[in-house]
Amino acid sequence: MCIGHMKKETDVESIMDRTGKETLVSDLNTHLKDAQTMVLGHYRGLTVGQMGELRTEMRKADGQVHVVKNRLLKIACKGTPFEHITDMMTGPTAIAFSSDPVAAAKITQAFADKNEAFEIIGGAMSEKRLETADVKALSSMPSLDELRSKMIGLLQAPATKIAVLTQAPATKVARVIAMKPEAA
Known about the structure:
The chain is an alpha+beta fold. A five-stranded antiparallel β-sheet has the order 2-3-1-4-5. Residues 1-10 have low confidence and may be disordered. It folds into two domains: 3-141, 2-Layer Sandwich (Alpha-Beta Plaits), CATH 3.30.70.1730; 142-184. It has seven helices and five strands; from the N terminus they run H-H-E-H-E-H-E-H-E-E-H-H.
């Protein structure tokens, strides 16, 4: 066998058989249908450990990071909200996606800020195409969990104030009653 015709052992296509590829594409398609946001980035130059860090951070936010052959990724995007950005899938592409509309952008942007080798090339938020600057702008917005915390704080603040105000007169009356016997 000629060396030029040997496939790399790390090549996903040489490791997976047709059934494995079909399963990968099907699973990825299912996950992408549930995702709100997808961010695409070039990962050339990152170590396995660095990619592991990115994956760990995305898992904490109930998201995922995958490195898949662009041809398989384009097939997986069919029938999802991200089908319109397949033209961005060139070169060594990593995808990050989550059901939180902001998490994928926030985590990948923070990762790109720390790692020069990771370059965000764009993405999508449902049917809206996101360029690099759009992903950066989206990353500065609060996540769903942060928004929920703020809403709970806003809703609890009036109730706390009302409770303090309703207890204040009773406290004053109790002080007056307590002072009366001393004066007598």
